[in-house]
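Might you be able to consider the sequence and fold that I enclose below?
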Amino acid sequence: MNLTLTRRGDYVVRSALALARAYPSGRPRKIREVVAEMAVPPTFASQILADLVRAELATSRAGKAGGYRLVRDPRDISLLEVVEAGEGPLRPERCALGDGPCRWDAVCPLHETWSSATAAFRSSLAATSLADLAASDEGLETGTRSAPADSHRAGGHAVAVDQTVPVARSAAALLDRLHRLEPRLAAAVAAAYAEVLPAAGGWRPGEGDTAVVLAAEPKAATGTLTWECVSEAEDGESRFEGTVEVTPLGAGRSELRGHGRLRPPSHPGEAPDRLAESLLRAVLCHLAHLAGARAGSTTRSPAG
């Protein structure tokens, strides 16, 4: 048993939140909608949603009007059910002080305390509904609910950023290349951080946390863009969640735009908003380069 979610558990909870948001409308959510709303990697999304179906928390239907939908009202689904759909039973499988199951001929002194703590943990999750979690998520998103004092958000709060990069390639050609770039986004992110933070080496994308999802809607001009970078120097983490879009400018030119919230790393001597803008702008330039396009001078948009 671990007190943090695995990557799979994380995505299962995010997907359940997306379905909870859609529940009042009665409309099923498509895989691409869950991917875009919750930054679930498209390569794993069907597996993650299948976990909710296997746990009998969601149902799926094929076809144009199909998709995924919760089988019960979010108020009647506990967070414990959702977490266990992704993590399996939240019970210790081994003795707290040993390397195997508890044996009555050698019960460890931690057995009763550990069992009580596990039961309390499960009870707390069971007492929280998926509707409660969705309401909290909405409050944090809209700013009507403040972050907890013991929040694990490293590097300060996220900054709203909006950057554009003119590109010497048509929108259609740029989109075609960007649709294939997800496996290589990590290289663009790493190069951008090394460029903007040359003295703070060791920044690298977190494994499994980097994604550019432009194929969520075939040939769409807009898609989700997410990444997370961690530092070998233990300077915290830096994360971006937002969108990337391509706008035609005519005559074989287009514009690559990134918009969202970026949590910049701590960096003495530079304001967080300026650092966030520089990082997003650098990532867009490196994306353009990976797509085989030449990026022009960038336009800075004020953070808001």
